[in-house]
């Protein structure tokens, strides 16, 4: 991906943060924070913010950085439809696809990736930084990179969801479970914001992140750290298959509604009912997503067969 194209993509991502209400008018944009969020270096983020300042969405204040200038309604149509979003085929997706289908070894060097994908050193670094942030790659001590285990088959995907159907409802019934009003309020705002925003415009990466975060934040209230650690790990392991299988945006609306119903039950003190609702919610997600992962698996095997 050319640096200017990467910057345009990030500019679109920042614009969507504003149009979704996640970034408000007058809010300060922190370069390193955005770079960490998108899994890139600071350079394309700065380039993207310069572009948006030129368009009037951001304002650059001397010695202070960039701030959101315009209200969402004034710039929502400015999002470029032809810029490549993170979830479509790009350098990151090519690497992820190759790891999902075992076309690359578990340990590689940056030079190997540069030669395989025809990328510059900076581009490889940006791709690996994102993979590291999303939990499926890590830098080896000394030299090279290591790709970590992820769910690569429909069977593994289903096993993860069945595991979640055990631990997430059970976490609400832990003796030390305690309602955290801050978590409840933050997650309610997020779910309502997603419903109020055109979900068709939000990147799949953001939708998946918000969905996973809802479950990870709720399980914290069990006050049992092992539940939280386990859920974060399996969420990372399923993420690539979620990307590959594509997000069902119509299902996302119902997902948000179910999340709000669970929050309502918890706020009313109906914890047992919330636990049952969580199990139904996860079971419904599995029944919808499982056929999609099986379809992807069949297509991948057919493609491999043709290439051989």
TrEMBL record:
This is DNA-binding GntR family transcriptional regulator. It holds the Pfam family GntR. Keywords: DNA-binding, Transcription, Transcription regulation. Coiled coil: none annotated. Residues 4-71 form the HTH gntR-type domain. InterPro entries: GntR_C (IPR011711), TF_FadR/GntR_C (IPR008920), Tscrpt_reg_HTH_GntR (IPR000524), WH-like_DNA-bd_sf (IPR036388), WH_DNA-bd_sf (IPR036390). It comes from Shinella fusca. The keyword Transcription regulation applies. One of its GO terms (molecular function) is DNA-binding transcription factor activity.
